[in-house]
Each structure stands twice: as structure tokens, then as C-alpha cells.
């Protein structure tokens, strides 16, 4: 132990990441028992800035465990406390929380080893004695790293000097690398798809274009049109299974854009009736590659056939019915293809602001005025996003894998399938982008996602933080600082991003669009089996079922006269309703329930609670995802159990769908999204009036005639259920947690964020 330590009252304001914390996890004393046998299987997590930086081994059946494990942690901000959490490991179940503590790094002396004893606490039971954890800690500046860092920086400058003056499109994350397009400018007709560091000629060309755009403050139209493809059906496809049938699905590809249809089981003449939209980048069109596959559980899918659609041969602003015979197979596909003009998706500097130009603003307001409610139903509104700057971002080498203590951040702005990127600001934790993005809104219930990455030339980009902002929650023209969240959007990560967002939309179009199917996103990573995700969905499902069970118990208690006044009131209400029952009373009762909840919210008696259970399960799921990414090579045996895993994933997804359905109904009546609740009030009011004045037989007659003649009137119409389409716009409890905006608080600590569930 170095007794000549330096006082740590004031940390020098040096480069972030230049402190090293050496921790020896010694032992635990008198830990709380969490198992039936009066013991626990404890392990310890260290967290810094909301991110897990170390996890100890598990000591089985011991309340006084001895670990003697060492960890080396790079410290970005010594004023941020180290969060220590102790759990009891339970095989196959959610681990039990034992206790937590904080280590204030500013109380340590530099270059001096200190023994620390931390008492474990549970915010739910602050008076309980949960034991203690003994540590040895040494905090020191990383002086020995500075020489190496400076040498690496010189090398980095030589390779990046020619790129930092103009927008460079970074490598995207490996999980979604095939989904991201590169930005190009039709004004210069240069496609920025390749970036060659070794070519000086290319550097000069790119730099000239960037300067030209910057000097002229010119808007860049990022794609020239939209290709709408409706997959109607397949005819006489090739049988690939032993039963003489197939389970066909279709994959579409146009450049980097990919879609996958649903699977239609056991048929050679499948009916899909699904619609997909592609961005058209080339003036002369492009070629859509289409492949048909047979789904096989437990083995590789069988190839049925392929075909191509040459868009250059199709006229614009017109719907084409195509019957495409399959090559290398049998049968054909029936498609409807429509080419339309480009949506207003642009990127520009702050000096080019459509909404500040009075003439342009009036044109936009006129386009979405009530007078145009039935013109171009797909054009619901206009979104403008100003990406101004970010502050206090996470250093890219916080894990110690690189030798740099800075980041090279760039920002990705997404609205459904529209994805735009800023340029990269090199070696900066407080980047300024000052870019404006504009989008056409197809669905007012869409969620704007803004993600910050760190560019890395040698591997895929590193995730720095993300925010998800529902369009209906945006306050126009207000510059706000959004706290960046982790990948699961459940808790804060380091840094904030400053955005100014404006939304203009037509309420009538938005309401009608709510009753239509949601836009499908590009092909995403397939679901995999996750213990935490399966457990989360099971608990959500259980909570929905318990609501019904509790309601049944409540009704049963009325029959049993457990509370005579309540039972008497219920009996009189039953007699009155049954004697006077009319069908219109059903929507009227739902209408009254909505009105009652609205009254509670307005009067300040809102009893809705923040769902910390779902939030904590989501955080545990993210940690499991991180472990699975690191240990994927060690889990190769799961590939040999593919069939079993697929069944488990199906059960996992079914639980999610059922639980989400129940939560969406609850959140409709809870006024989670006021726009949707008001829309439900209008619909229920109309239904009540119709049922009151029109006999039921006439309503059923109209409904039946519409159903029987729908295919005759519109043979290629896409089937949909208006009620399910409406509920699909209502967020589930998981989405409510993900979309919840975190408040910026300089004194924020993990204890405040996790006060409801420290586990």
C-alpha cells in the first residue's frame, strides 16, 4: 500500500478515461438469505453510468462468500459513483435481489490502496440488515497510457486528416448493417456508396461536393420516388414438403432494402395481400429481386423460385398488375406495383429552414389543412427535426479496448423506414452537427428514433445512446435536451442530445390512417430465445390474466354477500340493467369508463403508476443480451437444438402478443395516448347513436353485404381489421417504458433511477 497518496478533493479536469480503478472484491459478510434452505448463491455486479462493467463468479450456498476477484475499470468521470448490486442466483428463474451500495470515488485518495466496507441496503426496506461487502480499491491517473495514446493519435491524424472536413458515412452496426443506405445528392448526381482512403482523387471530389453543398446551403433530396408493391397471391407453386404442399413466403430486395412476407402454411396457392414500400434512388429505376421460399422448421428453408421486376419499364403514377412466372421453379406470383413521386425527405444545414421561410410554411400548412382531408390519404403530415448538438457523450474506449479517450460521434435519425445520417465529428465528446432533416409522415403514431454511434474504421460502429420520441408527444418549436438511453430504452446512458422538432399534420387523415394496417419495417434480426424475455412475457401475461381473475373474484364476492352494502347495490344494478338492457348500452358503458378515467386525470386523481416491474425486467434483458453477444461462440450447441428453440421462441412471441393486446386495451382507457382515447370516444359515441336509432337486423344486414361483396368490389384489397389496427397504435406497457422521456438532472444517481426496484 502506498501511504503517500495525494488528496482527491479536486480532480484535475484532464482527458476523460485517464483514471484507472483497480478493485479487489474480497468477501461478503452476513448476507441476506434468499433461498428456502436459509442460504443464498450470491454474485456481485459493478455498474458505472448505468452500464455493467464487472460481474463476479457465483458462490453457492454461502452467506459469507469469499471471492478474491480483481477488476480493472477505466473511469470516465470520477465524480460518478460506482453502483454495486448483489444478487442470489436462481437457475431458470429471475435472480433475487439481496442488496446494493454506492462507492463515492471522490472520497478516495489517488495512488493509495484503501479497504472499504459497504453496507448493503434495499430502498424498499431501508431498516433491514442485508449484510456487507468488503473491497480493496486503488484509484490512479493513467499516466502510463498517455505516451501510447499520443503516438496512436498521431497515426490517427494521418489517416483522418483528409476526411474530417466533409461528411463521411460511417460503418453501421453489424446487426443491421444491411439495412442502412448511404446518402447521395441528386443535385450533383454523385452516389456516396464507397469511400476509399487511399485515393487522393476521391478525397478531393468528395470534399469539393461537401463544400459546394455547404456554401450554397442547398437541400439534398435523398431519394427520387416511392415504389409500392402489393403481394397478392401465388399460383401453382412447387411442392417442397412430403405431404405434397409447401409453407411459402416471399423475400423482396431492392438495393439495400429488404422485406419478408408472412408465411402461409400448407398451400400451393397462397394468399398474402401484403404491401411493402421501397425508396427509389435511381432516376432510371431499378430491379426488384424476388425469391420464394418454403419454411422448414429445424433445417434450412427450401428454395421454390425467383423472378425480377424491372422498374425502368413501368410508367409512373400508375398501378401495374403483374403476373410474374417463377424461374428455377414452378408457378407465378401476382403483384401490384405503383411508382409515385418522391416524399419530401431532405437534409440541409440550419440556415435552410422550411418552417422559418414564411412562404414555405404557408404552403406546408395549406397542404395539411382540413380542406385537403381527402387528398392523398397516405400523406398525413410533415416532420422537421433539427439535430443541433450532443454533450458529455460516452468515450469510445471506456471499456479499455482502444487507446483513445474520445469518440467520433455521428447521429442516425429514423422514422419508420426512413433513415438519415449526420456527418461524423471526430475526436469530440460534445459534437455539433447543426443539421435539419425533414420527413413525410405516413402514420402520426410513428416513433422518431435518434441514435448516436461512434465511428470505428476497423469494426462496426459502437453504440453511444438513443432516444425514442412518439410524434404525438412532440412540442413544436421547443429546443429540448433529451437524455440518451441504453439499447433497450429502459435507463439512461452517458450524454444528452439537443433536438428541436416540429410536427404538422391533418387530424382527419391521421384518424383514418389509424384504422389501416401499420407500415411494415425492413427485415430485422430474427427473434431468439431469451430466458429474461420469456420470463418477462410470462409475467406480463400473468398480470393480464390476474385482472380477469380478480374481476371474477369480485363478482363472486357480490354473490356471496361478503360485503352486504356492495352486494345489495350490485343486485339492484343487475335488475335495472337486465330489465332495461339495449344493445347500445355496451358502447355507452365503455364510453362512460373512458369519461370517468379522463375526469380522474383532469381532477388530479390519476392513479396510473409507472411500471417499474417491466422497466427492471427490460434492463436485466439488456444485460443478458450483452452477455449473449460475448458468449455466442460458446453456445454453439444451441444451433443443434434449433427446432426446440424455434418452438420456445414461438411461445415467447405468443405470450408477448397476448400480453400486449391486454395492455393496449388498458392503456386505451387509461388515456396513455390522448389522441387515441379521443378517437375511441368519437367511435363509441357513433356506435351508441347507431345502435340506439337503427334496429340490429339492419346493422347486421349492412355488415354482411359489405363482407360478401368486398372481394367483388375490390379484388386486390388488403384484408384488415380496423379494431386490431387501432389497438396496434396503442403502446404496450413495454413501449410506454421505452418512450418515457428521462429528465435531465445534474445530481442524477442510479439510486434515484432505481428507487423502486434496486435489482
TrEMBL record:
Membrane topology: Multi-pass membrane protein
GO biological process: regulation of neurotransmitter secretion
Lineage per the UniProt record: Eukaryota, Metazoa, Chordata, Craniata, Vertebrata
Protein name as catalogued: Multiple C2 and transmembrane domain-containing protein 1
Domain (C2): residue spans on this chain: 2-118, 207-324, 358-484
PANTHER family reported in the protein's UniProt record: C2 DOMAIN-CONTAINING PROTEIN, DYSFERLIN-RELATED
Superkingdom of the source species: Eukaryota
GO cellular component, one term: endoplasmic reticulum membrane
InterPro entries: C2_dom, C2_domain_sf, MCTP_C
Keywords of the record: Calcium, Cytoplasmic vesicle, Endoplasmic reticulum, Endosome, Membrane, Metal-binding, Repeat, Synapse, Transmembrane, Transmembrane helix
Keyword Transmembrane helix found: yes
Sample GO molecular function, one term: calcium ion binding
Record Pfam families: C2 (PF00168), PRT_C (PF08372)
Transmembrane segments: 568-599, 675-703
Subcellular location(s) per record: Cytoplasmic vesicle, Secretory vesicle, Synaptic vesicle membrane; Endoplasmic reticulum membrane; Recycling endosome
Keyword presence, Transmembrane helix: yes
Family designation: Belongs to the MCTP family.
